[in-house]
Amino acid sequence: MRWAIGAALVVAMLAFGLGVYHTAGVLKAGGKVVHRPNEVSAPPLPGTMYVVQGGAIFRFQHGSFTQVTAEDGWMQPAARPGDNQLVAVRRQTNSSDLFLLTTGGKQVVQLTRNSTPGPAEGNHWSFYPRFSADGATLFYDYDPKSGFNNYQVDLAIYASPSNPDSRGSLQWTHPNDYTGGDVYPVPLRGGGLIYVKYSIDDSFKVHSQIWLQKRAGSSGQALTQIELGCTQPALSPDESLIAMVCSGGSNQTAELDVATFDPTTLTLGSPATLVSGQLVASPVFSPDGKTIAYLAPSTPGGQFQLWTAGSSGPASVRNITKDLGLDSTSPPVWIGG
């Protein structure tokens, strides 16, 4: 019974609440007015960036934001390499699906159909889509459901051909029961997969680690120590660095750490802290790998804003926006051009 209670709390946090960041992000920022991104300007950044606020996707380019989708449950976009397409999650009350979109926000095709007639517990969820380096495969989270308990939602990472005319999917990971599952897939050019694996101890405390698998279905190996509490990995374009959010068990702050990564030996160096004292979320590297963008409040209890920091210390931190309310569960998409 105690395990069931603990599992229910963890599932609610991971699968539906999507973390403490969303809760913090909806609090009022000291009475400040929260603007839509297309109502403000900001210091320009190189390339093009996509961010999410209020269920809509916005493009940030040359210091200006342009809304590219309606406010209709959109979240977690990712860019298809070498193409003018995005994949994004559209979340509804009792399910979520993946869609291919043009970079202008037009729907190309619906990739999943997770809403079914009947009770809500029969529906499914898809989150965190990511393309492989060649764009041919799409990795994503999906809840396969337990054959004995439809209410058990432990997300597993799957891979499917990104061509919507192709069929089939392959389950890559097998999550620990009652943890909420495996999340944040980051495909490697050599064929492996980095992601976040959760575990729960005998005291019902949830732990997160950056994990690596060389092939689908393998047990994999931890890249970070359990006491660091690391999650939300981002890989530099040359695969030499991994940025991550590490809490050390705290639910009040989360620091931005970076570590060297060897894609040949698949080993991670010791993480070094770039940004501390903030509630950091959703890091992503710039196209040249020299800068990391991330989301964090500008003031305690405030809405999440866009920040940047140099990828090698000491970090030169810049607060890019000040009065937005960005979706902290949707990492920015940063591409060249």
- Structural domain count: 1
By CATH, the superfamily comes out as TolB, C-terminal domain
What is the second-level CATH architecture?
6 Propeller
Order of helices and strands: HHEEEEEEEEEEEEEEEEEEEEEEEEE
- In DSSP terms (H or I, runs of 4 or more residues), the helix count works out at 2
**Outline, from the CA principal axes?**
globular
CATH overall fold name: Neuraminidase
The residue fraction in helices comes out at: under 10%
Spans with pLDDT under 50 lasting ≥5 residues? 1-30
For the sheet with most strands, the description reads: 5 strands, antiparallel
Beginning-to-end CA distance, first to last residue:
54 Å
Oligomer: single chain
Summed over residues and divided by their number, the pLDDT gives a mean of 90
Give the percentage of residues in beta strands: 35-45%
Q: At the first level of CATH, what is the class?
A: Mainly Beta
Structure write-up:
- Strands 16, 17, 18, 19 and 20 form a five-stranded antiparallel β-sheet that branches. A four-stranded antiparallel β-sheet has the order 3-2-1-25, with no helix packed on it.
- By secondary structure, the protein is mostly beta strands.
- It has one domain (2-335): Neuraminidase (6 Propeller).
- 7% of the residues lie in helices and 39% in strands.
- The radius of gyration is 19 Å and the shape is globular.
- It has helices spanning 2-17, 20-25; strands at 48-53, 56-61, 64-67, 74-79, 85-91, 96-102, 107-110, 126-131, 137-142, 156-161, 170-171, 183-187, 193-200, 206-213, 221-222, 230-235, 241-246, 255-262, 267-268, 272-275, 281-285, 291-297, 304-310, 318-319, 333-335.
- Strand 22 (291-297) and strand 23 (304-310) form a beta hairpin.
